[in-house]
User: Fold this.
Amino acid sequence: MLLKIKTNNKFIVTIFLLIIPLTTVNCQLTIDRNIFSSKNRLQFGNLLYKDRDYLRASEEFKEYLKSESNDTIAFRLANSYFKIGHFSEAADNFKGQFFGSHFSEEARLLFYESIFFRNDYKLLRELIDVKNYSSSEYAKEIERLKYTSYFLDNSALPDENAVLKNFPDSVHSQLINFYQQKKYPQHKSLTTAAILSTLLPGAGKIYTGEIGDGITSLIATALTTYLAITNFNANHQFRGWLFSGLAAFFYAGNIYGSAVSAQIYNAKIQFNFDKEVKLFFEQRNYFLPKIDY
Assistant:
């Protein structure tokens, strides 16, 4: 009797051990399937979006939208791309919301912002002028983007009044200053710098503001020329030709150096102008409204 009970116990334990793993596997499979459900992807994506983890949020939203249609999530996907600097993807996704979306107007503005922030200013102006994707609600903001872009590339400036009318009166004086600097840049002429140094060594560098280098060039050229003449007069041919070569080298070098100095001067002017303009617009968020859903 005791043997029979023990045998039955072993049988029960064996069955129990077989059932438990199978149940665990089934539960695990069920949990795994639920983790990747549309509902869970949406909740996780929204949580990531709220925490500004836009890169991972975009992946969750993209997977969710494969099986579901949702204007808000589609907008958040586009905005996530925008936030992480993937402006081409952002523009494509915003463009997909131009028609039939609750966020059509916001998508149009952010589409133009995406083109703007990827520095494709020529395309931006072409699209705005064609007016295929114009926005009634954000028309003024889009025009501001267009005229702001003229300060950030090498395109010819439009009429000053056309620029100013799109911005608040409080910034007109600063914009006029930028307009005048861009239209009439205080550049130094490379030709003038070279000619001045041809007539008087070092004069071209003094013209570009390199006064110390200009004086050094004048002294080096004058001194080697004087030594060449002195040695020729003293019948020291070798030293005469040696110093003549050095004088020619310093003379030619000072002409070339003056032209380069003018080029560097102009580059500094342009760099400082670009930096000042960008800082001005960045501090004012390019006069754009904050849109974030």
Remarks:
- The domain at 38-149 is CATH 1.25.40.10 (Serine Threonine Protein Phosphatase 5, Tetratricopeptide repeat).
- Confidence is low (pLDDT under 50) at residues 1-7, 16-32.
